Amino acid sequence: MANQTIIAFENVSKQYDEDLVLKDINFEIEQGKFYTLLGPSGCGKTTILRLIAGFTEATQGNIYFEKKRINDIPANKRKVNTVFQDYALFPHLNVFENVAFGLRIKKMSKQAIAIKVKEVLRLVQLDCFEDREISEMSGGQRQRVAIARALANEPDVLLLDEPLSALDLKLRTNMQYELRELQQRLGITFIFVTHDQEEALAMSDEIFVMNAGQVIQSGTPVDIYDEPINRFVADFIGESNIVEGNMLADNQVEFVGQSFECVDGGMRRNEPVEVVLRPEDLTITSPERGKLVVEVDTQLFRGVHYEIICYDQAGNEWMVHSTKKAKVGSKVGLFFEPEDIHVMRFNETEEEFDARLESYEEE
Amino acid sequence: MKKSKWFYSTPYYLWLLFFVITPVVMIFYQSFFNIEGNFTFENYQIYFTSGTYLKMTLNSVWYAFLITLITLIISYPTAYLLSKTKHKQLWLMLIVLPTWVNLLLKAYAFIGIFSTHGGVNHFLEFIGIGSRQILFTDFSFIFVAAYIEIPFMIMPIFNSLEELDPSLISASRDLGANSFETFRRVIFPLSLNGVKSGVQSVFIPALSLFMLTRLIGGNRVITLGTAIEEHFLVTQNWGMGSTIGVVLIVAMFIIMRLTNEKKRKGGPLSK
Ligand SMILES: Nc1ncnc2c1ncn2[C@@H]1O[C@H](COP(=O)(O)OP(=O)(O)OP(=O)(O)O)[C@@H](O)[C@H]1O
Ligand SMILES: [Mg+2]
């Protein structure tokens, strides 16, 4: 069951009038995993979901579902269900009837419908809400009705379009746990859309980072966080310090006029690169023991940590996350391990990136 | 703040007082006087006991019902198609345009079209059916009345279809419904409010059409509207005319109640 491809995009492009909103998208979705499409507003996330659900047609390319090309199959014949960005619950029907909608279309018997609706409502913890009107439900409850309505049809794939964006922080975190747990329990493939990177990192098996109609990088949350392919991904996923550098040799990179040991390789000698250091990987020590000497400029208390902004002699900004306070105006040292340095090449495609990673990791 | 609110709404309340409340009260008051000017309940007594008035009432309701039904049957698909076309505003404009033309002018236009030497009869003769009486028939009355009322039915239905969230239609398709099921289970129930206000704005005026009954129906169709006109302008029996007016006002409220009732509870439409 696992590792079976359920959905595949092959050179899919989508054009609205003159606008090319998806550019030659290729990916495979495996059964039973939690996927996240992550990217800034307008990058084409919803469009991908709409293509899978069948609400819109690809301008070019093939979409496969369980190995069959589904480009021409109408939405109502596809075994996927959607939880819409605005929930799209039917305002003229109560909770029970909303959830039962798909089952009534299938002409299931009354008893079977009643049993199924009860079951999925229990799944989303809305047992006693059957007779409520939609207008009488809170945002979080509506969202769960929307999930229940989609799940009642026992889809092979559930598409969720930013379902948590309208909720407050606390409820959102709760729902993240609930959704993840639900997905693992049911073993259904989830394709989840968000532009919240923390949400993506917390919930997914696999993340597709998108920008301007292209998938920039895909991989597990840890892969993407630790090995961002370029500045865009590094910036979009978490906070990062990015400086320009030079690759002196394999495992040897130069930036801010100093040479550092690192764990990246497979590049040309003296190739200009960009170097990422995550704020939480930097620790503040005395200037003598630090690998870099910087001056503390400002400090913000963020609750779990202090966000400290420093500048080195060359004028580069360094953000540090630390649980300890620093003294503004003082000179401090920054310490980091070789594996905290992430080197990125300019204009490297995902295939080249993956190939390079494999080549030097084998050595 | 309160003061300015009162200030700005004054014209509205004045308008309401002079042109809505006062006339209604006056009609109500008038209805208790007979033709000699004595206070009496006999107008109501006559109305509810004499066969003529009851028959007239039934007649009016029946014609109004037919006009509303025909208007609805034509307007709903039109509004539906309209909400799907590209240049909605242009088409809508073309449909609304005739309402700017005076009713009397439209009536005369139809007299021209339907008369013995009019366009329709010419056509009938041409295709060999031969000319026949069209003007002054039930058919012509209902036809013209429906023609005049159609924009008032299309507008609210069109608006309710326009307000419909397109993602609801996607959701319905997503849950396995084909176009027909989507229409039956989502689009139609959600446009029902538009249908209701359309029915309100057609049925009530249709109860009291009098110009058309005269000009197009040729006085063969007698409705409450004709009766009121008769009483006020011909027999000068203002009391009786007002009584019929009161009956119409009450009928109006009943229809408003009926068409607004079902909205309260959701659910029942889903079966
Ligand atoms: N029906 C349409 N007609 C024309 N352009 C469209 C249409 N739908 C989407 N677009 C365009 O396609 C691009 C991608 O839209 P999409 O809805 O997929 O973005 P998104 O990634 O979901 O953004 P968000 O995070 O804001 O929801 C946008 O530039 C949008 O303007
Ligand atoms: Mg979107």
Strand content of chain B is: under 5%
Tally of individual helices of chain A: 9
Chain pair forming the biggest interface: A-B, 31 and 21 residues
Oligomer: heterodimer
Count the beta strands of chain B: 0
CATH architecture of the largest domain in chain A: 3-Layer(aba) Sandwich
Topology:
The complex is a heterodimer of chains A (363) and B (271).
Chain A lengths: L4 E12 L2 E12 L3 E5 L6 H9 L6 E6 L2 E2 L10 E4 L11 H11 L4 H14 L15 H13 L5 E5 L7 H18 L2 E6 L2 H7 L2 E6 L2 E6 L1 H6 L4 H6 L4 E9 L2 E4 L2 E4 L9 E7 L5 E3 L6 E10 L4 E7 L4 E6 L8 E5 L6 E4 L4 H13 L1
Parallel strand pairs in A: 3-8, 3-9, 6-7, 7-8
Antiparallel strand pairs in A: 1-2, 1-4, 4-5, 9-10, 11-12, 11-14, 12-13, 14-20, 15-19, 16-17, 16-19, 17-18
Helix pairs in contact in A: 2-3, 2-4, 3-4
Chain B lengths: L1 H29 L11 H8 L1 H32 L5 H9 L6 H12 L4 H8 L11 H26 L2 H9 L4 H29 L3 H5 L8 H11 L3 H24 L10
The site of adenosine-5'-triphosphate has 12 residues of chain A, from strand 2 and helix 1.
Structure description:
The complex is a heterodimer of chains A (363) and B (271). With 363 residues, chain A is of the alpha+beta class. In chain A, β17 and β18 (317-322) form a beta hairpin. Helices cover 27% and strands 34% of the residues of chain A. The two termini of chain A are 34 Å apart. Chain A folds into three domains: 5-226, Rossmann fold; 239-278 and 338-363, no CATH class; 283-335, Beta Barrel (OB fold (Dihydrolipoamide Acetyltransferase, E2P)). Chain A has helices at 45-53, 95-105, 110-123, 139-151, 169-186, 197-203, 221-226, 231-236, 350-362, and strands at residues 5-16, 19-30, 34-38, 60-65, 68-69, 80-83, 157-161, 189-194, 206-211, 214-219, 241-249, 252-255, 258-261, 271-277, 283-285, 292-301, 306-312, 317-322, 331-335, 342-345. In chain A, α2 packs across α3 (110-123) and α2 runs parallel beside α4 (139-151). Chain A has nine helices and 20 strands. In chain A, the strands form four sheets. Chain A has a six-stranded mixed sheet, sandwiched between helices. Chain B has 271 residues and is mostly helical. Chain B has a domain at 62-222: MetI-like (MetI-like fold, Orthogonal Bundle). Chain B is 75% helix and 0% strand. Chain B has twelve helices and no strands. Chain B has helices spanning 2-30, 42-49, 51-82, 88-96, 103-114, 119-126, 138-163, 166-174, 179-207, 211-215, 224-234, 238-261. Classes of the chains: A alpha+beta (363), B mainly alpha (271). Chain A binds chain B through residues 53-55, 74-77, 80-82, 84-86, 88-94, 97, 101-102, 104-106, 133-134, 149-150, 153, and chain B through 165, 167-168, 170-178, 181, 185-186, 189-190, 266-267, 269-270. The structure holds adenosine-5'-triphosphate and magnesium ion (MG). Magnesium ion is lined by residues 45-46, 85, 161 of chain A.
